[in-house]
Structures are given as C-alpha cells and as structure tokens.
Amino acid sequence: MLNTNKLSKLRIHDIELEKSILYCLLHKKDLQKNIYKINKDDFYNLDNRKIFLEFKKILDSGKNIISETLPISLKGNPKFIEVVTHTALIIEFEHYLKRFKDISDMRKMQQIAHEINIKVEENRNSKEIRNWGINKLKKITGYQDVKYKQQNDEIDAKFENILNDPNLISVRTGYPRLDKITKGFLKSSLNIVASAQGIGKTSFILNLINHICYKQKKKVLFVALEMDYDELHAKMVSLISGVDFQKLIFESEKLTGEEWQKINNARSQISDYNLYRIGEDKITPSDIEITLQDLKNVDIIFIDYLQLMEPDVVANTLREKITNLSKELKILARKTEIPIVAISSINRDYSKRDDKKPRISDLRESGQIEFDAGTVLLLHRECKYRDADYGKGENPEEFEKEAELIIAKNRFGEDSLVIKFYFDGARSLMKERYDG
C-alpha cells in the first residue's frame, strides 16, 4: 500500500531566491512596502523566515529597514550575513517576487495534494474530499500584480455600457411594480425570498423563472432541494398551461382535449427554456461553482431552499451553518457576478404575534442573512391565519386568493413597501394586482 504518512520528496523551494527577496528589501527603501505582499509561510527556509519577520517588525513600528534599526542579534547572525553579501539585481525585484510567490503557491498545492492522498487512503467520502480540497485551494490567492490604471479603464468601460443598457446590471423579475422599486436582481447580489411554510415561496420562484426564461431568454440554474424534478416540472407545466396541478397529476383521465393541447404547448415552451437543474441531494456553494464552470454564462441562480443546503465550512450548530452558507453564497455571487435568489424559512415565533405578517427579524438565524442580502422579499397570505371577515366585506373566495409581497430590505431603493398579489395555488400562479 502507498505510504501517505510523509511527502515522497522535499517540497518545491528556492533558498537563493528567498535570499534575493530579502537582499532587495534590505538595500532598497522604496521596495520595502512590498513586504506586505509576503507571508512568513512563503519562506521555506526557517532562517530566512526569521529574518523576514525581523524586517516586518521594523516596518510595523513605522521605521525603515536600515542599519540603525536592525537589532544587534540579527546583525551578528551568520544567516543574515549571507543575505547581506548575497548577489541580486534590485531592478529584477518584481520578477523575483512573482517567482517567489509562485513557488510558495506550488508548495502549498503539494501539501494539499499530500493531504488529499491521505484522505483517499483513509477511504473518506469523495465529495467531502473534493470540497475540502476546493476550499484549501481557494485560499491560495496567487501573486497580485495590480495594474490600477488598466483596472480603472475596465471599470469605466463597464460603467459606460451600463449607462447605455441598464439591463446589464440586473435580471428583471418580470413584475412591473417590483422591478420599478428594486430594479430587479442586481449582479453579484444575494437575494432572499422568505415566508412561513405553505405560503407560496416555491410558486413565487417558479413565476420568476418563467418570466426570466420566457420573456428575457435568460439562462437560469435552479438548485432544487425540496422537491424532485418531476414535481417541479409538473408545477411549471400547470403554471403555464393553466391546468390545475392536482388534476394534471392525479386525474389525467378527466382532462379535456383542450386541456391536453394547453399542456403540450406548455411542455413545448419549457423545452425551449435555457433552464438547468441540479439538486435532489446535499449541495454546497462549491458544488454550484463547479456546475457554473461547466454550464458557462448563467444569468441567475435560484435555490429552493437555503436551509437544505450544506456549507463548505463545517458547522457545529444551525446558526453556524446558516451564517457560513450566507457568507459563502455572497462570496459566490460576487466572484461570478451572478445574482443568487434563495428561498428561506422563517422562525416559528411569528405565530405568537397578533400580527402574523413576517418581519425581517423573523428570518431563521437571521443576523448574517440580513447583513449579506441585497434584497429581502417576504410573502404573506392572511387567509392562512384567519377566515374571511364578512363584516369587512371580505369575500371568502377572493380572500383566499389574496397575497402580499413585503419588500423588507432593498439595498438600493425604498423598502418596507407592500405589493398586493393574486395567488392561485392550484396553478402556482402569482401576479401583481392593480386594484389598489
């Protein structure tokens, strides 16, 4: 059996290059600011690492690295004398630094590969190993040779494109009032749709997907964790065809010829959608990121729902789990510049209040979600908590169809606003109402 207890050979390093880095920092004051691009672990040789830490201590104190600021213990160190007498070209410092950081990164990758090999030999779960490796590799940032002028030019070019076409910064929801207030789901944003159980979160998401796929021809990734694909597909067919979901699934023998035609038309329409689904299993943000690399050019991601996902960083409590998930999804949205819309459940404590309308503080383990989300939309249906009030002139059938969308957070516009909706649960249909 392969012995995985130790590396088969010394990790990649270049001690002479390490000395060149230290030599240049010592002999050129203008280069000393670059010390903050370097970590102590970038040095393989322990003596060179100690010299680096002494240099950094001097700079941290607000002084420059010169003979007068060097500690006596360092001046008498034979290893430091090797650095002082080392031969290096100061003009080549940028080249030295890039190569030095590259070697450091490769050494870290060697260690990660070694530890992955150990986990494989221990017969760990393959998904666990992959996610562990991905998270470790993400922390290797590489050498950042920032060209600020080029960066500013690129940003300005993007800004000019946005001025000419505002749709470049967001994906519209397809609901006129909602889009007017929120401007849609902005790129790089994490957005939350939340409510109590059975209010209509999934129905709302299906309507959004239908608007985005059909009208805008956008590419959508749907992470389905609560319902299987067959049920979701049937609900989408019901929504588009207008045929009752229960009849479609359980009473198909009663369908009329006209209803079959509507169903087939809906199926044909959905087949043209740029809609991709993953899920029905434990999914992490890293799984989504890998899927995005395969799919390319996804415009928006929907997650149904947040509490059923697993974070990449292992959590010991539910609060830690949701906190990690929120952070990781926000990072994923920024990294990919793709808006993410996630369904979330809310705490049960809301049911103890006289006013059953959800609040942003009701978000389950809400602290981090509330902070990370650009938009928080809360769904409410009063009929779930009381009967129609005849004294107020409420018609039971109409009352059953009433819903409200509360814009609890809107980072770039007004919030604490309510939009009235018509809700038909039999068809998963939700549309804005215009009767005030």
Summary tags:
alpha/beta; single chain; two-stranded antiparallel sheet; Rossmann fold; 9-stranded mixed β-sheet; DNAb Helicase, Chain A; 436 residues; 45% helix
Topology:
Blueprint: H1 15-27, H2 46-60, H3 72-75, H4 78-84, H5 93-121, H6 126-138, H7 148-164, E1 170-171, H8 176-182, E2 185-186, E3 190-195, H9 201-214, E4 220-224, H10 229-241, H11 245-250, H12 257-271, E5 275-279, H13 285-295, E6 300-304, H14 318-336, E7 340-345, H15 366-372, E8 375-380, H16 396-400, E9 402-410, E10 417-424, E11 429-432
Parallel strand pairs: 3-7, 3-8, 4-5, 4-6, 6-7
Antiparallel strand pairs: 1-2, 8-9, 9-10, 10-11
Helix pairs in contact: 1-2, 1-5, 5-6, 9-10, 10-12, 14-15
Could you explain how this protein is built, in words?
The protein has about 425 residues and is of the alpha/beta class. It has two domains: about 15-140, DNAb Helicase, Chain A (Orthogonal Bundle), CATH 1.10.860; about 165-430, P-loop containing nucleotide triphosphate hydrolases (Rossmann fold, 3-Layer(aba) Sandwich), CATH 3.40.50.300. It has 16 helices and eleven strands. The chain has a nine-stranded mixed sheet with strand order 5-4-6-7-3-8-9-10-11, with helices on both faces. The chain has a two-stranded antiparallel ribbon with strand order 1-2. Strand 9 and strand 10 (about 415-425) form a beta hairpin. The mean pLDDT is about 85.
User: Based on helices, strands and strand pairing, what is the structural class?
Assistant: alpha/beta
Residue runs with pLDDT of under 50 for 5 or more positions: none
User: Percent of residues in helical segments?
Assistant: 40-55%
Q: Any idea of the CATH topology of the largest domain?
A: Rossmann fold
Evaluate the radius of gyration. 29 Å
CATH domain class of the largest domain: Alpha Beta
Mean pLDDT: 86
Please count the helical segments. Answer: 16
Based on DSSP secondary structure assignment, what is the total number of beta strands? Answer: 11
Task: Write down the domain tally.
Answer: 2
How far apart lie the N and C ends? 74 Å
Characterize the main sheet: 9 strands, mixed
Q: Strand fraction band? A: 5-15%
Large-scale geometry: elongated
Helix and strand succession?
HHHHHHHEHEEHEHHHEHEHEHEHEEE
CATH homologous superfamily title of the largest domain: P-loop containing nucleotide triphosphate hydrolases
Kindly report the spatial arrangement of strands forming the biggest sheet: 5-4-6-7-3-8-9-10-11
Supply the CATH architecture of the largest domain: 3-Layer(aba) Sandwich
